[in-house]
Amino acid sequence: MKKAPKSIAVMLRRYARLFLAILVLTTLIGVGAYSISSTASYQQNRILFLINGFYQNLQESHTEVASDVSLVEAVSPERQGALRERISLLRETLTQMRALKISLSFTRDVDDLLGLLASYEQIMEGLLSAKGREDYSHSSAYRQLTDVYEVMNGSFHRVYGEVLSVCEASSRQAERYSLMYLLAAALCLVFFFRYLASEMRQIEETITQPIEQLEEELMGLDLNRAEAETALLSPENACDDIRILIGVYNSMLQNIKSQLMEREANLQTHLALQQQEMENLQIRYALKKSQLSNLQSQINPHFLFNTLGLISQSAYLEGDANTVSLLQMTSDLLRYYLDYGDKAVTVGKELEMLGNYVALQEQRFGDRICFRFDLDESFREVKMPNVILQPLVENAILHGIGMMRSGARITIKTQLSEDGQMGLLSILDNGEGMDADTLRAVDQTMRSGKIVTGKDGLSNVFLRLSFFYDGRADIRLESEKGRYTRVTVLLPVKAEEQSSQEKDKDQEEQQGEKAGEEEPCTES
Amino acid sequence: MKRSIFSRLLPIACLLVLALIYVRATQSPAKVEDYRYRYTFLCPLNWSNVASGLLQADRENHTNTKMMGVSQMDIAKQVKTLEQVILSRPDGIITAAPVDSEGFRAALKEAKKRQIPVILVDSDLPGTERDCYVGTDNLQNGTLAGEQMVKATGGKGKIACLVSSMDYPNQRERVDAFEKVIAAWPEMEVVDILECHSSRLEIMDLLPSFLLSHPEVDALYLTEAIGGSLVGEILTAQFSSRPLTIVSTDDMASIRAYLEKGIYCATIAQRPWEEGYQAGMALTAIREGKPVPKIIYTGSRVITRENLREQENTPIEEVVWDYY
Description:
The complex is a heterodimer.
Chain A: H1 8-70, H2 77-100, H3 104-129, H4 138-219, H5 240-298, H6 301-318, H7 321-339, E1 344-346, H8 347-365, E2 369-374, E3 383-385, H9 389-401, E4 408-416, E5 422-429, H10 436-448, H11 457-468, E6 474-480, E7 484-492, H12 500-517
Helix pairs in contact in A: 1-2, 1-4, 2-3, 3-4, 5-11, 6-7, 7-8, 10-11
Chain B: H1 2-26, E1 38-43, H2 48-61, E2 64-69, H3 75-87, E3 92-95, H4 102-113, E4 118-121, E5 132-135, H5 138-153, E6 157-163, H6 169-183, E7 188-195, H7 200-213, E8 219-222, H8 225-238, E9 245-249, H9 253-261, E10 266-269, H10 272-287, E11 295-297, E12 301-304
Parallel strand pairs in B: 1-2, 1-3, 3-4, 4-5, 5-11, 6-7, 6-8, 8-9, 9-10
Antiparallel strand pairs in B: 10-12
């Protein structure tokens, strides 16, 4: 089994090198094939050239010689020299032909031709030098010359045929070699291409496929549902570089999954915590309610109401109208406290009862405290728990105003928030206020739910508000030492459908309120 | 691991093979061996046996012998060809003297002048400047033929001789020797000598009419091969009933067949291969300056039906004949 290569770079380099090698090999093969075929033809062309040259030259030379020796006058030395040169050229050609060593019989033929040429030369010399000599038989010599020439010339067919047959044989051999060569070359190339193919396959397996897999996974990755996709990629096939990528991807995926699980766990914890807090609230409220009912059980309301009625009757009989009204207000308040145990009341009703309380307090404090009402009529019908505002006003009187001799002012304001989602009921006093630390401590205590007997008005109100509104209500404390304190209750306001009866009833009540509440205060 | 090595070796092997083929293919062809001496063998007909012997001598001596044939049995042409051969200035000439002609003698003189050794085979021309004669002793041939004829006819017979031409010395010698032998037998005589010039047509013309016109002839002496091969055919075709004792010359497949059939009773065979071989060896010896006898007899064999099976093992090779 081949070992997987180290990296992409190595593999690609190998591939490129192999490809280059194939290219070079193919080129060399081509060159080789060409040279094989050209070698044979070069030889052939050379010999055929020589042969043709020789016989051509022979014919021309003989024509010249024949004509020259036939002349009456002697042949000039220059002419003789020229003829001799032709003969030596012929000899030269024959020697070259012999040197090629085409075949045994060819060499033999060339040797015979050389011999004949020598004889020809001899006769020619005789003819040239014997001009004018009478003892020399020119005609027989000339006949001999012609004979020799005929024999030489006649050998052309045989010699040419010999060469052609040798050439043909060598051509056929060259063809055979070429074929073998090309077959071997093709086989070589097949092997190399197989190498290339296997390298390609390797690249495919270790680079391309893993990348494609990774790509697929990444495309289909939905980070929100990552816990469902547990498919981690297997890095076996990939090469080292890709393995790194896959490793990173896997760890990233793990990371995301664990983070999501953490978040989920956090969410669960958070919900559980909220649940727990709700339960706590419920328990505290139940405790409060039991305390209240305890109180209620201790007091017989009917006895109180009867007694107050009796006193009222007596006051009436005395002609003390003021006392009668005070007693009426007290009675109403008491009824409110006792009857509306844990019922929800409308904001309007709460404000009405607050009016009673305020009136009673005015009676007590006289000009010391001035009460102001600044009311937004739009959310009178919102339901709220009872006895919320009165403890706050009480706090304002006790802690805020406290020792002020005069000029104390308490403003009760109702307002709808800008976005209409929350209703604000605020109690503002211009009393001694609290410094920042105290404010914070009070706020903390309020929210902590600790019941400190005697100082638990604010906490109580906050607890009951939280419970009633499921934690959506809030109390905001603002204060500046020596200037003012403002306690704002924030209620969620729901646009409720009301029956016309209730509306009418409330409207009556409102008008009564308005008349009673808009009392001018002496400005301080 | 094995597979890896194998698959790595294979392409390398292929490349090596490729390189090898390339080297072989581009190699210039093996140089043709050169020869020491250049001989020409000129014979009137295509004597392949003699040529084969010469080829063997070539192989042993690293010489080259060109085999030249003359297309017709034309003395003039033969002489002319010899002259041309001499003009090509070979290192040696082997030829057969056809007939005593002036031209031939002149040619031999010319060869001597140019210092070209000439060896005659098969038929001699004594008194000429030839360096050596290699062949049968024609007298011995004729003598053997005469002895066989005596044996076959039992000392009685009217004999006709079929020769190529009495101008040819070898024919003349054979006939003379033959006649000498049978001269001792009074009951035997040579009635006539027919000249056929080694032409089949002539034989076909002459022989049947001769035999018809000479009914007393009961024996034939054939002194050359053509007659030897053709006569049997003619006799089988036309004269199968006529009792004839036939002594032939030379060794050919047809002659052997007739011996087998009993048409011929004997043939005096030469040893042509030996002639060629000895001629080639002698020529090289002459060129090398060694002493060579003027006459080398290569001997004769008598072949009868009995010893037909004993063959001389002389390989006859394919010879390429050149013509001028």
